[in-house]
Amino acid sequence: MAMTSSQVKREQQNSMTLTAAAAGPGTGTGWPRRNSQNSVPATPAPATPIYPSAALNRIINLYPLTNYIFGTKEPLFEKDPSVPARFQRMRDEFEKIGMRRSVEGILLVHEHGLPHVLLLQLGTTFFKLPGGELNPGEDEVDGLKRLLTETLGRLDGVKQDWVVEDIIGNWWRPNFEPPQYPYIPSHITKPKEHKRLFLVQLQEKALFAVPKNYKLVAAPLFELYDNAQGYGPIISSLAQALCRFQFIYM
User: Fold this and answer.
1) What is the pLDDT of residues 118-170, one digit of tens each?
2) Which of 20, 76, 103, 114 is most buried (most C-beta within 10 Å)?
3) Are residues 236 and 226 in contact, defined by beta-carbon separation less than 8 angstroms?
4) What distance, in Å, lies between the first and last C-alpha atoms of the chain?
5) Where is the Nudix hydrolase domain (predicted)?
6) What is d(CA 227, CA 223) in angstroms, rounded to the nearest whole number?
7) Considering the entire predicted model, what is its pTM?
8) Which string of b and e fits 192-211 if b means at least 16 CB within 10 Å?
9) Cα dist. 81→78, 158, 225 in Å?
10) For the segment 128-142, what is each residue's pLDDT rounded down to a tens digit?
């Protein structure tokens, strides 16, 4: 027998009521569901942990370039006469003692209210950070202090006080070739060199003795930034590596 529209509507309402009753108390078909006395209370989400170190404000004092005196001393020559000779020595040492470890120091000053990095310049186009190779088993910080003293230390017997601060970079050389990367490529299991960069807090005043075959230049960060063609990938990345520090211009 045909049903009127009102009868169809009442039939649908009765069907929904029976379905809800069969499902039991505390349930429903709508969203959001309301809590009932028999429902299990929701477990609160764990609070997000607060890490004090994440908000650590690292302050570095920068002193004017004019605070420092630059003298000269005897030339400091590289161990290897050419780039091929350098990689051949690295290959020979790798077979005996394994991966080469090297360290370099970031020495900062300011001029005209802008941060500058002290770089060693050899010739007209080659720039490098002060540092070098570690001896087998040598501590990184002790080795960096030794290398800084050999490169820039005074000749009058006064001990230079090098304050080595944060590690600001790690670079790896995967093969006996020039390219270096701030990570170990996935297919490399035995990198040939690991270079670690340290920030060095300079004293308010100091005297540096620069080898005669080098010039010590102060390069502004804005000139280094994104300038791998002029300074290489490591030095040109220093602006990004140092951006987490707050510089105080003394």
Assistant:
1) 999 998 889 999 999 999 999 999 999 999 999 999 888 788 889 999 999 99
2) 103
3) yes
4) 98
5) 99-224
6) 7
7) 0.77
8) bbbbbbbbbbbeeebebbbb
9) 7, 32, 30
10) 999 999 999 999 999
Q: Alpha-carbon distance 91 to 35, whole Å? A: 71
HSE-up of 22 (CA within 13 Å, CB side)? 6
Tokens of 45: 């989400």
- The position carrying tokens 């701030």 is 182
